[in-house]
Design a protein that fits this description.
Elements (H helix, E strand, L loop, with lengths): L19 H14 L5 E2 L11 H12 L12 H14 L11 E4 L2 H12 L5 E6 L3 H9 L3 E6 L10 H6 L5 E7 L11 H14 L2 E5 L14 H4 L6 E6 L12 E4 L2 H14 L5 H12 L2 H27 L12 E5 L7 H13 L1 E2 L1 E2 L8 E5 L4 H18 L3
Parallel strand pairs: 1-10, 3-4, 3-5, 5-6, 6-7
Antiparallel strand pairs: 2-8, 7-8, 9-12, 11-12
The structure holds glutamic acid.
């Protein structure tokens, strides 16, 4: 009999790294608990309350008995609402049906369901880089290989078919798309998106299109994959209510995919988590179906994000920093001042220690000489944080 057990990570998680976006905000919370005054621009979490009509609908649903399991794939009215939305966008030959929708505990789970169902050992998945930290890890957890396809900073890091094709091999099985992008705020134009979808269809790749920021777009509405797709038999659209409706804690996301894949993801989810929280599904249903009162709040939150962006960007640029102008989402992606292999992490550490501002190092997004600032916080906080960023950048030396 063994005297003691020593934990050794299984092969499944041997290479796994903790989520840097979450780690930063946990560190910020810990410092606040110690009494330090911290401005947390780490995690991308809207600071608004969930709109009142949604909260009221959720409370009423609980009173009416929405407290039990639902179907693993989610309640039918919610899947119908999601399918109806998709059909407003999609003009291809076939209609999206509720059977092609799987509701989960957040778009993170939906992305993971898709990665596990589609990719496995020996497969390669193209990931436009920089990308959100969890894509790389989720592809790895599926035991496939994430292939970084670095975009050109001069084009806001957006990738095009030529760049993607240059990284393809016979083992390429799919690609991750994210527009508006976390962390760059870049938005793909309809023709750019269509060109990538055409390449994927041509090459027999799956496309996982993460559209969690699609409603947060400042110039024109950001196109989703279904707006431009002419076919969708290789397409998984992932979305959720977290960002647009300020519903991060409710944990509701979904996939729209061909039915056989939906069935496989449903089987997988039936063993991992069963249905997403019943009350949250009713809240999401309210978000998607209540219409005008909720839409007005979404619009005013987007307008507020825009106001913050416009107030803070000149401060950062005035300090001589290279900052991408976000056309969507709510992040500034900034070239870290200073030199060295991990200039971004060094800058984040200096900023937190000297000025009490928490931001995320670009290494989380596989571009270690950049940093990400979330402006999903009160304007006064964002502006003050950017002044502090400017101060530390001036000390380190920009240029
Ligand atoms: N997606 C947000 C972010 O990038 C929330 C945290 C997370 O899930 O990564 O900050």
């Amino acid at each position: 009999m063994a005297d003691s057990f020593v934990f050794r990570p299984s092969e499944n998680i041997a290479a796994l790294k903790e989520s840097a976006t979450i780690a930063v905000s946990q560190r910020a919370k810990a410092l606040k608990a110690e009494g330090r005054e911290i401005i947390d621009l780490g995690a991308g979490e809207p600071d608004f309350d969930t709109p009142a009509p949604i909260r009221a609908a959720a409370a009423a649903a609980v009173e009416q008995g929405a407290t039990r399991y639902t179907a693993v794939e989610g309640i039918l009215p919610l899947r119908e609402a999601i399918a109806a939305d998709a059909n407003r966008a999609y003009r291809g030959p076939d209609r999206v049906t509720p059977a092609e929708v799987v509701v989960s505990n957040g778009s993170k789970q939906s992305l993971y369901n898709a990665c596990v169902a589609l990719f496995g050992p020996g497969d390669e998945v193209l990931v436009p880089t920089p990308s959100w930290t969890s894509y790389y890890e989720m592809v790895g957890l599926a035991r496939a290989t994430a292939v970084e396809v670095h975009g050109d900073p001069a084009r806001g890091f957006k990738v095009d078919p030529a760049r993607l094709a240059a990284h393809a091999t016979p083992r390429t099985r799919g690609l991750m798309l994210n527009s508006p992008s976390n962390p760059t705020g870049g938005v793909y134009a309809p023709n750019e998106l269509r060109a990538i979808l055409d390449l994927a269809a041509d090459r027999g790749w799956w496309v996982i299109s993460d559209e969690i920021y699609v409603r947060i777009s400042y110039d024109a509405p950001a196109p989703g994959a279904l707006d431009v797709a002419t076919r969708r038999d290789n397409l998984v659209v992932v979305n959720g209510v977290a960002k647009a409706y300020a519903m991060t804690g409710w944990r509701i996301g979904w996939t729209i995919s061909p039915a056989p894949l939906a069935k496989a993801m449903n089987a997988f989810q039936s063993h991992t988590t069963s249905n997403a929280a019943t009350v949250s599904q009713h809240a999401a249903l309210a978000a998607l179906t209540l219409g005008a009162p909720v839409e007005a709040e979404v619009q005013s939150m987007v307008a507020e994000f825009r106001k913050r962006r416009d107030a803070a960007l000149p401060i950062l640029r005035g300090a001589g920093l290279t900052v991408l102008e976000p056309a969507g989402a709510f992040y500034f992606y900034i070239k870290a001042p200073g030199t060295g292999a991990d200039a971004g992490a060094a800058f984040c550490t200096a900023l937190l220690e000297r000025e009490g501002v928490a931001i995320v190092p670009g290494s989380a997004f596989r571009t270690p000489d950049w940093v990400r600032v979330s402006y999903a916080a009160a304007e006064s906080q964002v502006v003050e944080a950017c002044r502090r960023i400017a101060r530390v950048a001036a000390d380190i030396g920009v240029g």
